[in-house]
Design goal:
This protein has a single domain, classed as Aldolase class I (TIM Barrel, Alpha-Beta Barrel). It contains 13 helices and ten strands. It has helices at residues 23-35, 55-69, 85-98, 115-128, 139-142, 148-157, 171-180, 194-199, 214-225, 229-238, 240-245, 253-261, 279-289, and strands at residues 7-11, 16-17, 20-21, 40-42, 75-79, 102-106, 132-137, 161-166, 185-188, 204-207. The strands form two sheets. Strands 1-4-5-6-7-8-9-10 form an eight-stranded parallel barrel, surrounded by seven helices. The protein is globular, with a radius of gyration of 18 Å.
Length: 296
Amino acid sequence: MMNPVFGSCTALITPFKNGKLDEAAYANLIKRQIRLGIDIISPMGTTGESPTVTHDEHKRCIEIAIECAKGTEAKVLAGAGSNSTAEAVDLAKFAANAGANGVLVITPYYNKPTQEGLFLHYQAIANAVDVGVMLYNVPGRCAVDLKPSTVKQIADACPNVYAIKEASGSMERCIELGVLTPNISIFSGDDGINYPILANGGKGVVSVTSNLLPNKLKEMTNAAAKGDYLSAKKINDELYAINSVLFVETNPIPIKAAMYLAGLIENLEFRLPLTNPSAETMKKLEAALQKYEILK
């Protein structure tokens, strides 16, 4: 049965070693997240380099997250997106059967479906599982925009679609979604505007920055949930420097490099076409990291 998950969520990076998934390092990263109080673990999203992992690796990452979260208060929101509806359904069913609390489903990328195609895509996925489904709109990466009217159409047809990760970067869009679909919870998908989205009624964040600072994102979402918006804004302001530098190159290049610089992963390794950051970006990351206490 659907049991929606809310609060602070980390879009996990995926560590590699000699070209392969580093399962031990991945489990350690997840255990650290849980130890530092994160509400939700999200394996295999954009930040997890899902486009370049194999389907077996994708499913293994979901399994590891579920194994690590078992017996804890942390929930698992598994990435289950694809530009093929059949593949997305397969991933969503796998995640649900493995014990994920919900699935995060990005809009199909590259093939640019119509709004009707987006509706039918999400309907097929939602109908295939009995866990909560979070829509994920990031037009800057996917070349397609999930319109608020379509979100409403999906929500009306699919009771287990409970939330949207809105990463258009537009506060106006978030306000429109809140007015048009008050039954759909809005999660910030853009660390730079986490606070204003929470202050406008957002129910959580799906954060890149929380790979480094899960404790701070947890504090911010908790403060907002209690109506303590001054405290939430103070934390968001404190995170401005790191939030800014983490997107100077394509995500997840900077966050993975920052995790390496902070000693949280042993290898800085990407899969092509992603590459190591420039020397200039590394310097910017080093300078920004000096401003924060990175808990181990």
